[in-house]
TrEMBL record:
Name of protein: S8 family serine peptidase
Active site residues per record: D159, H199, S488
Domain Inhibitor I9, residue spans: 70-113
Organism: Caldifermentibacillus hisashii
Family: Belongs to the peptidase S8 family.
Record domain Peptidase S8/S53: where: 150-540
One of the Pfam families matching this protein, by short name: Peptidase_S8
Sequence ranges assigned to domain PA in this UniProt record: 354-425
Keywords, comma-separated and alphabetical: Cell wall, Hydrolase, Protease, Secreted, Serine protease, Signal
Length: 753
């Protein structure tokens, strides 16, 4: 085992402490006072990314750092932006930031994979890559007569590494680099028990498996960059260094199935992917697994130029519990027995599933409904089995979707239910006493609940750009195969499709490939048979056959009008380029949207395009004053190009929409006894920002640790001094931000010692 990997685990443990999950307690804030200037802790060690304002060689960077002897140069960047990363005491980093040649300094965030194993599909034969049309295009050839298999296309994968000894990946793997251990061996983390990884190998299999399993582009060349180490943790610095290397290796397509929860367009990883696209690389990234709420897309899924991918369902069997004439969708947990219950069973409420919750109820031979909390899922199931339950349904205690799993194979069917459905089912059970029946339904092309939604804060962009299958995706892992769920599984479908498009059209730019994938996607419908919002699905689920047969390319493929004021006759226009890539003339027309009291469209008259001709057109919107403030307006405009119908997603916001005013709060003790360091992200800045301290038992307000007015947008990193004598113990630190009359906050438990 490499020594660096051991060291990384120690860093991992520290990161978990600093970024521990916040609690949620509402409180009304009161009182503010001005504070004196706060000293910096000179001994705090930091790793930061430094952006300089002009090209700088590595030797010039070293020369610049000679005045700061305790700063260690780690990586030099010259492709994604001009700069480098350093590690050293915060006092010297602060002095370095004062140099006129320094444009910006970014902290190195911790990235953590968010995936879940998924139960095997009942028929065991489904291949998700065929659902995007892979099987329909295998007979097609490129200009040299080669079948479309990704032959000759370089695909970079920034992830946990790759098991290049896997029999399905040996042919595809070319080379790689390990940015965790700084060597040329990008093997997955092994021999570290629960910290072993398999994610990168799974991603690689979806893209280019070539053996027992076949990927989307089985003859593509895989370049593996290990930027996530034991347990799936990595840093901004490692990811940016990997993007830099991918540019040097001149890969054609780059896949990043990773991200943070910070919704902002200006984080270094998002900027790095923008730069990769400028260098001719089709950059593909997962959209995140924090859905189904709005504004949950995270960096680098917020990249303007990259293809951000959400998760849809392939054709799968989903169990529903039918009770009192109403049906509730279940999500089976990995380790559960199949939900093949052939008759009706009574269903009873078992509280939190603790031993004491079973004292006054009889669950023998029945389905038990439990609330999430207190115990892990597996312990709830084992206790239910002990008391004779036939099956277990666990409903959520929060609105956010959960990618859950059991810690081993169970003897009972086990499934997860949303908070809304669980509470509704519980109320029905209180008013009726009828048996429940399990009904299996075939579902396809639905958005996964966990798939993050947009739009992007500040830029108000539509994200994701497209969706692809991300549920029950079976692919390669070290030693075999495993089904997983997550947008991490969706992105490689799109990366593989991009490799196929690049092989078929080697002269196409990344912008053209992105536009074609979007313009030929299938907009998806929800359970109510209505279109999902454009900021939920982008242009829709990708379709490879349609993408390869397209006759028209529209750039950009989405109309993003940004922020408008909602005044009478306010008109906003966007220019797009329509290109005829066929060998015959085509006629282009627009369908007039339904009449609206809030918006009027200014659409071009019908026009013709000669073969290979391009034309710039303008599409305008006239926003009327009937608009509600703080709202998101979106939908699709249909353009008919020959026999092809292109659905163009659009979005604009009125005034200051209802996005989260604060994201990603972490608060930690510094090495000096009286100093603390915090880090937060303000997507739109703040009229008022502060950190308040409360008693963890009584929620009594104690003090303001820091506060400020008219704060700039973006990342805030600061060291503060504890100025009030506080007793040792546990407190609640509450970071809050107020902007345009709306206030949001995040809370974290902290220890005062």
């Amino acid at each position: 085992m490499k020594i660096a990997r051991k060291c990384f685990v120690l860093c991992l443990i520290f990161s978990i402490f600093v970024l521990s999950a916040p609690i949620n307690i509402k409180y009304v804030y009161a009182g503010k006072y001005e504070r004196p200037a706060l000293p910096q802790d000179e001994d705090t060690q930091q790793t930061v990314i430094v952006k300089v304002n002009k090209p700088m060689t590595e030797s010039e960077a070293k020369q610049l750092l000679q005045s700061y002897p305790d700063l260690k140069l780690r990586y030099h960047f010259q492709n994604i932006f001009n700069g480098f990363s350093v590690m050293g005491p915060s006092s010297q980093i602060k002095k370095l930031a004062e140099k006129t040649s320094i444009e910006n300094i970014y902290p190195s965030y911790t990235y953590k994979l968010d995936i879940s194993p998924y139960p095997q599909i009942s028929n065991g034969t489904f291949n998700s890559i065929n659902y995007i049309g892979t099987s329909k295009i295998r007979h097609l050839t490129d200009k040299n007569g080669n079948h479309l298999t990704g032959k000759g296309i370089k695909v970079g994968i920034i992830d946990t590494g790759i098991d290049y000894t896997h029999p399905d990946l040996r042919k595809s793997y070319v080379k790689g680099y390990d940015f965790v251990d700084n060597d040329h061996d990008p093997m997955e983390t092994v021999d570290m028990g629960p910290n072993n990884t398999f994610h990168g190998t799974h991603v690689a299999g979806v893209i280019a498996a070539n053996g027992k399993m076949t990927g989307v582009a089985p003859e593509a060349e895989i370049y593996a960059y290990r930027a996530l180490g034991p347990g799936g943790f990595g840093t901004t610095e490692m990811i940016i260094a990997a993007v830099e290397q991918a540019i040097k290796d001149r890969v054609d397509v780059l896949n990043l199935s990773l991200g943070t929860s910070i919704n902002g367009p200006d984080l270094p990883t998002s900027l790095a992917l923008d730069k990769a696209v400028e260098n001719g690389i089709v950059a593909v990234t997962s959209n995140g697994n924090s859905g189904p709420d709005l504004w949950t897309v995270g960096s680098p899924g917020t990249s303007h130029r990259a293809i951000s991918v959400g998760a849809s369902t392939p054709e799968i069997q989903i169990p529903y519990v039918d009770y009192y004439g109403q049906q509730f969708r279940l999500s089976p947990l990995t380790g559960s027995k199949p939900w093949n219950l052939d008759r009706s069973y009574m269903i009873v409420a078992g509280g939190l599933g603790r031993e004491k919750d079973y004292q006054d109820i009889d669950v023998n031979g029945k389905i038990v409904l439990l609330k999430r909390g207190k115990l892990i899922f597996s312990d709830k199931v084992r206790t239910a089995e002990k008391y004779g339950a036939k099956a277990v349904i666990i409903y959520n205690n929060e609105d956010k979707a959960v990618l859950g799993m059991l810690d081993g194979e169970m003897n009972l069917p086990v499934a997860f239910l949303s908070k809304k459905d669980g509470e509704h089912l519980l109320k029905l059970m209180e008013t009726s006493n009828t048996p429940a029946k399990i009904v299996n339904k075939t579902e396809q092309d639905r958005l996964a609940d966990f798939s993050s939604r947009g739009p992007v804060t500040f830029s108000w962009e539509i994200k994701p750009d497209v969706v692809a299958p991300g549920v029950a995706i079976e692919s390669t892992v070290p030693g075999g195969y495993k089904p997983l769920a997550g947008t991490s599984m969706s992105a490689p479908h799109v990366a593989g499709a991009s490799a196929i498009l690049k092989q078929a059209n080697p002269d196409w730019t990344p912008e053209q490939i992105k536009a074609v994938l979007m313009s030929t996607s299938k907009p998806l419908l929800n359970e109510a048979n209505q279109l999902y919002q454009s900021f939920e699905q982008g242009a829709g689920r990708i379709q490879m056959e349609e993408a390869l047969r397209t006759e028209t390319i529209i750039q950009p493929a989405a109309l993003q009008y940004g922020k408008v004021k909602g005044k009478t006759f306010e008109e906003t226009k966007k220019m797009i380029t329509v290109e005829n890539v066929s060998d015959h003339a085509i006629r282009c027309t627009f369908s007039t949207p339904l009449r609206s009291d809030t918006i009027a469209w200014d659409l071009p008259s019908p026009f013709y395009l000669k073969p290979k001709e391009k034309k710039q057109i303008t599409i305008g919107i006239e926003v009327k004053n009937q608009h509600k403030k703080n709202e998101i307006y979106n939908g699709f405009i249909d353009m008919h190009s020959g026999s092809q119908t292109i659905h163009i997603p659009y979005l604009y916001v009125v005034a200051e929409p209802d996005y989260p005013r604060i994201m990603q709060f972490s608060f930690e003790k510094s090495e000096r006894e009286d100093l603390y360091k915090y880090e937060t992200y303000l997507p739109g800045g703040a009229d008022e920002f502060g950190i308040a301290l409360f008693d963890s038992d009584t929620y009594r307000f104690i003090d303001y640790l820091d506060w400020e007015k008219n704060v700039r947008r973006g990342l805030i990193t600061k060291t503060i001094k504890q100025e009030k004598d506080l007793q040792k113990g546990t407190y609640i630190a509450v970071a809050f931000a107020k902007k345009s009359g709306k206030e949001d906050f995040i809370e974290q438990l902290i220890e005062i010692q």
